[in-house]
Every structure is written in C-alpha cells, then in structure tokens.
Specification:
82% of the residues lie in helices and 0% in strands. By secondary structure, the protein is mainly alpha-helical. Among the domains are: 89 residues; 67 residues, no CATH class.
Amino acid sequence: MEQMTLYLVLGGLLILTLVLASIAQRYHAYIEERRRRIERVLQKVSEIEGILHRMRGLPVPVEAEEILRKEVLERLSVVKSVHSRHPGIDKMIAEAEQALSAVEPGTASLDLDEVQLATLIITLGEVLWMGQEGRFASELPEQDKIALMQVCAMRRAECLNRFHRREGEQKRRDGQLNQALWHYNQICKFIRENGPEDDRVRSWYRQAEETHREILLEINGHADESSSE
C-alpha cells in the first residue's frame, strides 16, 4: 500500500513537473514573441523619425508632418498596450504627444538647391508610398488620405518645377543650351511619370515642353550658322 502511494506521489510530481515545464515554455515563448513585436514596432518608429529628421528645414506640407507624428504616437501606443512597463515608454509617448501638438505650417522657401530638392522628393515619396501601400497605422479616412497624397505630390512637383526652371533659365542666359535643355526635359519626364493630375501641373508641363522646343530651335539655329560659315 505504501509502495503504491509512493508511486502515485512520484507520478503526480512528474505530471506536475511536466505541466510546469510546459507553462514555463509557453511563457518564455510569449515573452520572446512580445519582445520581437515591440522590436518591430520600435524599428518602424525609428524609420519614421528618420523621415521627420530629414524633413527639417524643407517646405514639407503640414499634413505630411502631422500624419507622421500621429504614426509615431500610434505605434508607441501599441508598445504600451503590449507591454505597459516597457522601459521609457511613458516618456516616449509624452514626447510624441508634445511633438504632435507643436506641428504647424512651415515657412521654408520653395526654392531649393539640388541636395534639398533630392531630399524633399525622397521624403515625400516615402509618405506617398506609405499611403499607396496602406502602411498607415493610425486611422485615416479615405478622403483624408487622398487629400494628403495629393498635397504631397503637388508640393514635390512644384519644387521640382521651380528648381529646374530656375536652373534652365540661368543656363539658357549663359548660352549653355544643352544643359538648359536637360533641365526642362527633367520637368517633363518627372511630371509624365509622377503627375499628379492637376491643372497647375499640366500648365508646368506645357511651359517646360514649349521652352524645350524653343531651345532646340536655338541649338539647331546655331548649328546651321556654324555649317554655313
């Protein structure tokens, strides 16, 4: 009888050990999955903050900065919901809320240099990509998303048009007609490939196309003069 009791006790202990081991294993798996999820979310936060950093000093539409600030806050809130005691999360959320409340229309000039223009095109392109691919974590009505993407696309096209038109005019005045031709060609190429559909953008395209033709005539005229000499 005592031997049977001992077997039962040992069997019970073995079962208990297996149950506890299974619970511990599931707990560790849960902790690891939580860690990986938080890591992915914070990586995305870091990427968005990188975009915001590159936007500084550029004529970025206020709507673009606002949605990115909301994205940072939304993702940090996800971290909070997954792990309420994640180190520093409360401070991060407070800073994100403050940054969002401080968003206001910028006063940066639309006349950019080559490096600034390239940075603007890339950063606004990232915002457009997020909208096109449905990568916004924060709730954004479809109408608002369309308006956001339109204003970002317009700002990108406007700054590119201003830069290449300014440079093209300068090259033309300096007699560097082939270089001037290249600048106007860049306007036409960008608008053909990226739009957006808008009356102002179409007028920029027509103006660039017309100036492109004028410069070609000038180049051909110079060539004819040289051949006749």
